[in-house]
Specification:
The chain is α/β, with parallel strands linked by helices. It folds into three domains: 1-66, no CATH class; 73-279, Rossmann fold; 283-448, Ribosomal Protein S5, domain 2. The chain is 27% helix and 26% strand. It has a nine-stranded mixed sheet. A four-stranded mixed sheet has the order 15-16-18-17. It has a three-stranded antiparallel sheet with strand order 2-1-3. Helix 5 (157-165) runs parallel beside helix 6 and helix 9 crosses helix 10 (371-383). It is globular. It starts with a strand and ends with a helix.
Length: 450
């Protein structure tokens, strides 16, 4: 008997035969999600109501006799840093979710991965968005033509899962989860019920046959993964593809990884031949720098990798009653806090200044040690004075104006020395002749913004 579907309220659990805008039980709006009703499970509920327990006893093994999944063979990509982000490569039987903005290069990256792995193993690229001709053109441009690289165009999750269950392919790419639909669900592709159930179906097939699967996911306007949060919980690895799609560097970082660390990052740039790893991002980011007021070099970390990046600040007199604050690559809320600290703890008056912050190269900073560099860049722009070319800056700024310690200072210092800088302005907790100790914000600005 074919399974039917029902609509379940995500707030109270009430069920309905068809979708309605408001739950009649709890009053919640747009909370009904379509779910499949398994007839066998319905019979199980009847047995449970009668006090009967269905199922069978689990088979179990001693934990000491189990072979860790991390000892399985991994599929290596041609990108060393991406292998590190994945924990050593793509683990067999793992399901990864790759998300990024449109035009970022997700399909390009996956085609390059397929090209490398198809040298030794059978690979299947399934697309629900592009035709065979479109994918062929990309494969030719990237030099990814191989007899072991196969393509299929499909939007049926049932067909894709059945193909994975054959065990014929070592790696399967699904582009993308928002285009798939299950035969048992009547809702449109991309809805919560379709994404959840299609993802679950593909994951079960991958685990059963020890097939590595990479699923492409769309993102919303604010950059978060589109669809239900449960999809991120189901998969083993969640990768975020970030950066400026029109230029600059692009980064791949793992926000979830069951088989490795989540503090690693791979940095790419787009060239005619596809995505290319950036061996020395610091030198590339500083190549076109001119030392003007408002320009400060920050020693930051992208994952475990130290990078020197330019922080630019611009301050102009506001023409309106409310000054404008804009940040590119830096958290706007954090910028507002730092401006408040500057006004309260120094003699700078910023209430009539429009302030703009830019992180050069499309890098998005989440490092607390960027505070001092941002403050010094703002002070430099407002005063119209430069910071010396020989300095790099790092350190967290507290609400009292004190300079706090930074994570992995030794790596930041080593990167600055390698690129020929003479000194670093950093927290007073660092005892290194290379570092000029900065105890508080006001003293530091007076001494070095000249």
């Amino acid at each position: 008997m074919k399974n039917k579907s029902q609509f379940v309220c995500q707030q109270c659990g009430a069920t309905y035969a068809k979708w309605i805008g408001q739950c009649a039980n709890c009053g919640a709006w747009n909370s009904l999600v379509e779910q499949i009703v398994d007839n066998s499970r319905a019979n199980g509920k009847t047995a449970l109501a009668k006090g009967q327990i269905s199922g069978k006893e689990l088979s179990f093994a001693k934990i000491s006799t189990i072979t860790p999944s991390d000892t399985k063979a991994r599929l290596k990509t041609q990108f060393a840093d991406l292998n590190t982000v994945l924990g050593g490569g793509i683990l067999m039987g793992s399901v990864s979710l790759l998300a990024g903005q449109p035009g970022m290069g997700k399909s390009t990256l996956l085609m390059q991965i397929c090209s490398e792995i198809a040298k030794e193993h059978d690979v299947l690229y399934v697309s629900g968005e592009e035709s065979a001709g479109q994918v062929k053109l990309r494969a030719v441009r990237l030099g990814a033509e191989s007899d072991k690289l196969n393509f299929a165009a499909s939007t049926s999750a049932n067909d894709i899962a059945k193909t994975i269950e054959t065990g014929q392919f070592r790696l399967v790419i699904v582009d993308s989860i928002q285009t798939l639909a299950m035969d048992e669900i009547s809702s449109a592709p991309g809805t919560v019920s379709q994404v959840t159930n299609c993802g679950n179906l593909i994951i079960r097939a991958a685990k059963a046959t020890d097939t590595a699967v990479i699923i492409v996911g769309h993102v919303t306007k604010d950059g978060t993964l589109a669809g239900p949060k449960v999809l991120e919980h189901l998969v083993d690895v969640v990768l975020n593809f970030e950066g400026d799609r029109y230029g600059g560097f692009k980064t791949v970082r793992a926000v979830k990884n069951r088989f490795g660390a989540t503090n690693e990052v791979a940095i790419f740039e787009m060239v005619n031949e596809g995505l290319k790893e950036v061996a020395n991002p610091s030198a590339a980011l500083l190549a076109e720098r001119t030392n003007t007021d408002g320009s400060v070099i920050l020693a930051t970390l992208e994952g475990n990798r130290p990078i020197l990046v330019e922080i630019q600040a611009l301050a102009t007199k506001s023409n309106y009653g409310y000054p404008k604050r804009t940040a590119s690559g830096f958290d706007l809320n954090r910028l507002n806090i730092l401006i408040a600290v500057l006004e309260r703890r120094t003699k700078l008056r910023l209430s009539e200044q429009d302030i703009f912050i830019n992180v050069v190269g499309g890098i998005k900073l989440s490092d607390a040690a960027a505070d001092l560099a941002v403050c010094m860049a703002i002070a430099s722009a407002v005063a119209g004075r430069k910071l010396g070319e020989e300095y790099v800056v790092f350190g967290e700024v507290g609400l009292g104006g004190e300079i706090r310690s930074a994570f992995r200072s030794d790596q930041r210092i080593a990167e600055a020395k390698k690129l020929g800088f003479s000194h670093a302005i950093g927290p007073s907790s660092i005892h290194d002749k290379f570092v000029i100790q900065a105890k508080d914000l006001r003293t530091t600005l007076i001494k070095y913004i000249k």
